């Protein structure tokens, strides 16, 4: 099943018009729930590979992100850290491409963000989750100049997020 998903990823790069059609999306969607971690990882890579190669239609990927965002977020809590890492790589790509902007579910966002503070996972998962958080903080936007004042603002916003998260509420 893992080899099938990786082959599907290769075909998705060649013919995204076919393999990102609704009737074909159900297969990698199903394998996100497979009992074997290697298959779940391959399914996530089947979604990620066309994105990394640049061979995707933004409108189609927006639909994919909207349909599977919750499931991708669930994969960040998988028992296998390679699945967690692959899920965060995919979610980070989608966030950077602006394909998660339509997702309004705070629970999904929090589930992903909290991986940055999880001591029970790998450094890679925590790093990817932190990058995911940074994508959401306005002070880190590319168009913001690198000045001392902006660096302080970035730290303040990041510290504010950590305090809010650890304190389960707003902390002045």
UniProtKB/TrEMBL annotation:
GO biological process assignments: sister chromatid cohesion
SUPFAM superfamilies in the cross-refs: ARM repeat
Protein species of origin: Amphora coffeiformis
Pfam families attached to this UniProt entry: SCD (PF21581)
Protein name: SCD domain-containing protein
GO cellular component terms, A-Z: chromatin; cohesin complex; nucleus
Every SCD domain range: 1-79
GO MF annotations, alphabetized: chromatin binding
UniProt superkingdom: Eukaryota
């Amino acid at each position: 099943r893992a080899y099938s998903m990786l082959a599907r990823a290769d075909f998705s790069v060649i013919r995204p018009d076919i393999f990102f059609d609704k009737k074909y999306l159900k297969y990698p969607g199903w394998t996100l729930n497979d009992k074997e971690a290697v298959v779940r990882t391959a399914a996530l890579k089947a979604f990620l590979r066309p994105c990394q190669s640049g061979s995707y239609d933004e409108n189609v990927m927006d639909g994919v992100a909207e349909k599977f965002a919750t499931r991708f977020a669930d994969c960040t809590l998988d028992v296998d850290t390679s699945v967690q890492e692959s899920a965060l790589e995919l979610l980070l790509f989608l966030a950077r491409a602006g394909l998660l902007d339509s997702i309004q579910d705070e629970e999904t966002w929090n589930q992903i963000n909290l991986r940055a503070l999880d001591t029970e996972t790998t450094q890679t998962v925590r790093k990817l989750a932190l990058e995911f958080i940074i994508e959401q903080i306005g002070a880190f936007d590319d168009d913001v100049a690198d000045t001392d004042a902006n660096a302080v603002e970035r730290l303040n916003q990041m510290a504010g997020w950590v305090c809010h998260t650890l304190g389960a509420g707003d902390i002045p």
